[in-house]
Design a protein that fits this description.
homodimer; globular; alpha/beta; 357 residues; TIM Barrel; seven-stranded parallel beta sheet; 15 helices
Chain lengths: 357, 357
C-alpha cells in the first residue's frame, strides 16, 4: 500500500523539483490545482518536433540518439507548459533488447522480421540480456533530459505492459484483431506464459534502470488490453503487470490498460499509485470502484481537441467537474493525434490550470 | 414489446420452415436445443467459397451476382450444418447506394474515393434513392437463396448500423482510431446527425425490402460501436439504431454493437428481440441486466477455434453452461477468422447440437 511514508522512498533528485504537483497527485497529497500533461506530447503535433525529425534518417535514429530524444522530450515543457515530461522513446525497444529487431515503416508502423509463434522460435530471443548496455541510449536520454529540465517538472519513464509487447512479438506488426496473439493463448498457453515472464523480467530491470537514470515516475502502457475478455486479461495481462508493480514499490506508477473497461474492478486491486483511463471509461464510476486508494489519470477524448476553443474549454471543464477528489492527473484518454493544432492543446492546458479545485 | 402474439406478424414464408429453432430462440419460445450459426460463415473459411471466388474478378462481383451470392450463402448450410443462413453481402452496399462507390482492395479492405467530411460534400450523396432498384442484386440473391434453401433453415438479412456506416463514409477506409469520424462529432455534430438520419432512412427501406425478398430475420452490425464512450454512443449510435428497430417491429432482429460494453445497459432498452455479444462481453452479467426480455446471441471467442478439438469442446460447453435460460442463440463473439480449420467449426457446431438443454 502506498502510505503516508511514501516520500521517504523517493530518490533524492525528486526533492529538488520546482513543480511537483504531478508527483503529489500520484501520492494523493494536497494539491493547489490539477496537474496536466498529454500522452504523445513529445511528438508530431509540434512543428519543433517535426523540424528535429526532418534532420534525421528516421524515427529510430531519434529514439536512439540521446541528445535528440532529450530535445524533443523537453519541447512540450517549453512550448505547452505541461506539468510533466515523458521521455521520448518507444515501447518496442524492449522486444528489440530481447533479440527481435524492428523497423518503423513510414505510414505503416512497426515491423518485425522475426516473430515468436512456436516454442522453437523462442531461440530468436537472447538469454542473459544486459539491459543497462542494450538500452543505454534510453538511460543517457533520461540523464540528459533530467539535467536540462533542471527540476522544472518531473520526468516520466515508461514501458509497454507485457501483454502488449507479446502482441508485437507474436504478430510482428500492428493488427486489427491480434488474432495470432490471441490464438497462442489457446494453442500454447504455456508458451505465452513463458514469453510474458521473460518480457516481465526485462521490463522490471528496464524500469528500475530508468528510475536510476532520473525518471521520477513510471507508466505502463497496455495498448491492446481491450482485445481480451476479463478472464483472459487477468491471466495473461494483469498477472504480469502485478509482478512489475510489486517489484517496483513506492514509486509513482500509472497503469494504463486501454480498452479494459470490463477489467476495471481488477485494475483497482493493483499496488500502483495511479490508473490511466481511456476516453471511454467513466470517471465517476471508476472513482466509486477505486475509492480514494488511487489517483486517476485522464481522460478527455482526444477528438475534443479538433473542436473550437470554446468546445475545448467546455469539455475540459465538464471533465474537471466530474472529479470528486484531488486524486486526479489530467490527460487525454489516448495519445494526442498528430494533426491536432497545438493552440488547442494550450487551451486545454490553460483551462486545467485556471480551474479552481 | 415482443409478446405472445408475435407469430401472427411473421411473413407467411417463415411458416414453412423445417428448422425454425433460430426463430423460436429469437422469440423466446421453447426450444429443444440451442440454435447455432457463425458470423462470416459464408466466406473465406470454406474451400468451396474460395473456389467460387477464384472464378470471379473480385469480391464485389460476388456480392453483385445473385447466383454466386446465393451459392456461397447456402454452402455453410450444406457443409457446416448451421441452423441459419446469412445472405452473402457487405454492409458497404448502403453507402454505395447513397452515392459513394467503394472498391474492395485485396489485403487492404474497402476504399472510397469520395468521403463526407463537410456540409458541401453532402452533395456527393444522391437524393431520392430507389433502394429497390439500386440494391436489386441483394434482393435477387435473397429470393434465389430462399428458393434453393427450400425451408431448410431461416435466412438472415443484414445491414450496418448507421454509426458504422458513417465511419466508412467519413473515413473512406478502415482506421485504427476512426479519429476523422469522431472529430466530426465535435466539429459539426449537426452534419453527423444529418448523415446518420439519411443512412437510417435508407437502411430502414433496405431492411424492409430484404424482408419482402425473403429474409426471415435481420441483424444490424455496429462494428465500430466500441470507439465511442457511452454518452456519445447514445447520441450518435443508439438513437438511430432505435429508429430502425422501431420502424421494423415484430421481426426477429439482432443488434450487435461490438465493443460497446459500457453501453450494455442502454442496449437492453432497445425494442429488438436479440442482442449480439462480442467475446469480451459477459453472458451472465448481461443476462442479469436484460432479464428474460431478450435473446442473447454469441459469444465464443473466435480464437478458441484455433485450439484443439478437445479445447473447442471444452470452451463451447463452458459457454453453454453459462446460459441460465433458453433465450440464447449460439455464435462466435466476432466473425469467424478466415484461416480457421472448418473441421474445428464442425466440432463447435456438433458440441452445441449435442448439448442437452
Amino acid at each position: 500500500m502506498i502510505g503516508e511514508n511514501f516520500s521517504e522512498f523517493l530518490p533524492l533528485h525528486t526533492m529538488e523539483l520546482k513543480n511537483d504537483l504531478f508527483l503529489r497527485a500520484h501520492r494523493g497529497e494536497a494539491i493547489e490545482r490539477y496537474p496536466v500533461w498529454l500522452m504523445r506530447q513529445a511528438g508530431r503535433i509540434l512543428p519543433e518536433y517535426r523540424a528535429v525529425r526532418a534532420k534525421l534518417s528516421g524515427f529510430k535514429e531519434l529514439v536512439e540518439t540521446p541528445e535528440f530524444a532529450a530535445e524533443v522530450t523537453i519541447q512540450p515543457v517549453d512550448i505547452l507548459d505541461v506539468d510533466a515530461a515523458i521521455i521520448f522513446s518507444d515501447i518496442l525497444v524492449v522486444p528489440e533488447a530481447m533479440g527481435l529487431t524492428y523497423q518503423m515503416i513510414e505510414q505503416k508502423g512497426p515491423w518485425f522480421e522475426k516473430t515468436i509463434r512456436t516454442r522453437e522460435q523462442l531461440s530468436f530471443l537472447d538469454q542473459e540480456i544486459d539491459v543497462q548496455e542494450r538500452l543505454s541510449y534510453v538511460f543517457e536520454a533520461l540523464k540528459l533530459t533530467k539535467k536540462e529540465l533542471a527540476g522544472r517538472v518531473p520526468l516520466i519513464g515508461f514501458a509497454g505492459a507485457p501483454w502488449t509487447i507479446l502482441c508485437y512479438m507474436v504478430e510482428g506488426r500492428g493488427s486489427k484483431t491480434f488474432s495470432e496473439s490471441r490464438k497462442l493463448l489457446y494453442t500454447d498457453p504455456d508458451l505465452a506464459h513463458e514469453l510474458l515472464s521473460r518480457i516481465t523480467d526485462v521490463t522490471i530491470q528496464y524500469l528500475k534502470a530508468q528510475l536510476n537514470a532520473g525518471a521520477d515516475a513510471l507508466q505502463l502502457f497496455d495498448s491492446w488490453a481491450g482485445i481480451l475478455g476479463r478472464e483472459q486479461y487477468t491471466e495473461f495481462g494483469l498477472k504480469y503487470i502485478s509482478k512489475i508493480v510489486d517489484a517496483i514499490p513506492h514509486v509513482p506508477l500509472t497503469v494504463f490498460s486501454k480498452g479494459a473497461i470490463a477489467s476495471l474492478p481488477d485494475l483497482t486491486e493493483l499496488n500502483c499509485s495511479t490508473l490511466g483511463l481511456d476516453w471511454n471509461m467513466n470517471v465517476v464510476e471508476t472513482r466509486k470502484m477505486v475509492g480514494e486508494t488511487k489517483t486517476l489519470q485522464g481522460n478527455l477524448d482526444p477528438c475534443v481537441l479538433y473542436g473550437s476553443q470554446k468546445l475545448v474549454e467546455l469539455e475540459t471543464i465538464k471533465l474537471l467537474k466530474s472529479f470528486e477528489s484531488q486524486r486526479h492527473i489530467v490527460n487525454l484518454g489516448h495519445g494526442v493525434y498528430p494533426d491536432i493544432d497545438p493552440e488547442k492543446v494550450k487551451v486545454f492546458i490553460k483551462t486545467v490550470k485556471n480551474y479552481e479545485i
